[in-house]
Amino acid sequence: MLVYRDLPRGTKHDIAVNGIRFAMFCSGYLDTMGSIYNMVKMFLGGITTYTWLPWFGTHVPAYMEEANLDFLRNNMQWDLEKREIDFIEYDESNFKTGDVLAIFRLDGVDPLIMYGTGSTIGHCTMTVWFDDELYVIEAMENVFWPIKNVQRNKYRDWIKMARDADYHVAHLSLTQSARARFNETAAKEFFFRTEGLPYGFHNFLYGWIDS
């Protein structure tokens, strides 16, 4: 049986300052259980690297997509428009070093990031030309992505992985003034210094809730 003397020091301090408190269901048990069910639907699916596996492979299941669309519609007032064409062939010549790929995935995590930051993307990458070969560089730590940490992938390979993960991608090209200030040499040197290091999403989350 847990007694007061066995509690951690921080818990004892909290009780001493604030007393014992009870959490209550603001909307009642049934409504709360319904909210939990809707939340689970947002996150449960598309969580492995197996492209062929239904529900739990790389692709986002239909129920998961709808749950995330409802969340964005109800909580961010962003009603995404469905497009008949969901993929186009996009030539590598459209990219320059320093361009950004703005991404979101309807997987619970990205909409949560979007909600918390007020953004309409949950992930971004940069395109960089290395020796006449176009690469996408990024920091990644997701169960559906085959490679972890700070990394680079050839554009053609990255596009295939992005399609398998049901990414929504927008190409943001640098403006002329931004490109004039962009130091390509320093950017490449920074990447090679940090390649393979952990993503650090813990820092990102802590900075979000701490501020």
What would you note in describing this structure?
The relative contact order is 0.12. The mean pLDDT is 90. The chain has 2 domains: 29-75, no CATH class; 94-210, endopeptidase domain like (from Nostoc punctiforme) (endopeptidase fold (from Nostoc punctiforme), Alpha-Beta Complex). Helix 2 crosses helix 3. 40% of the residues lie in helices and 15% in strands. The longest helix has 15 residues, at 29-43. The radius of gyration is 22 Å and the shape is globular. It has a 5-stranded antiparallel beta sheet with strand order 4-3-2-1-5, with helices on both faces. By secondary structure, it is α+β, with helices and mostly antiparallel strands. The protein has 8 helices and 5 strands; from the N terminus they run H-H-H-E-H-E-E-E-H-E-H-H-H. It has helices spanning 9-18, 29-43, 62-75, 109-117, 155-164, 176-181, 184-194, 201-210; strands spanning 100-104, 123-130, 133-140, 149-154, 168-172.
Q: What is the strand and helix layout of this fold?
A:
Elements: H1 9-18, H2 29-43, H3 62-75, E1 100-104, H4 109-117, E2 123-130, E3 133-140, E4 149-154, H5 155-164, E5 168-172, H6 176-181, H7 184-194, H8 201-210
Antiparallel strand pairs: 1-2, 1-5, 2-3, 3-4
Radius of gyration: 22 Å
Counted by DSSP, the helix tally is 8
What about the largest sheet? 5 strands, antiparallel
CATH class of the largest domain: Alpha Beta
The rounded distance between the terminal residues' Cα atoms is: 38 Å
Instruction: Record the strand order, biggest sheet.
Output: 4-3-2-1-5
What is the name of the CATH superfamily of the largest domain?
Answer: endopeptidase domain like (from Nostoc punctiforme)
The percent range for helix content is 40-55%
Order of SSEs, N→C? HHHEHEEEHEHHH
Overall pLDDT:
90
In CATH, the topology of the largest domain is named endopeptidase fold (from Nostoc punctiforme)
How many domains make up the 3D coordinates?
2
What proportion strand? 15-25%
**Can you name the CATH architecture of the largest domain?**
Alpha-Beta Complex
Which structural class do you get from the secondary structure elements? alpha+beta
Q: How many beta-strand elements? A: 5
Low-confidence stretches: none
Shape: globular
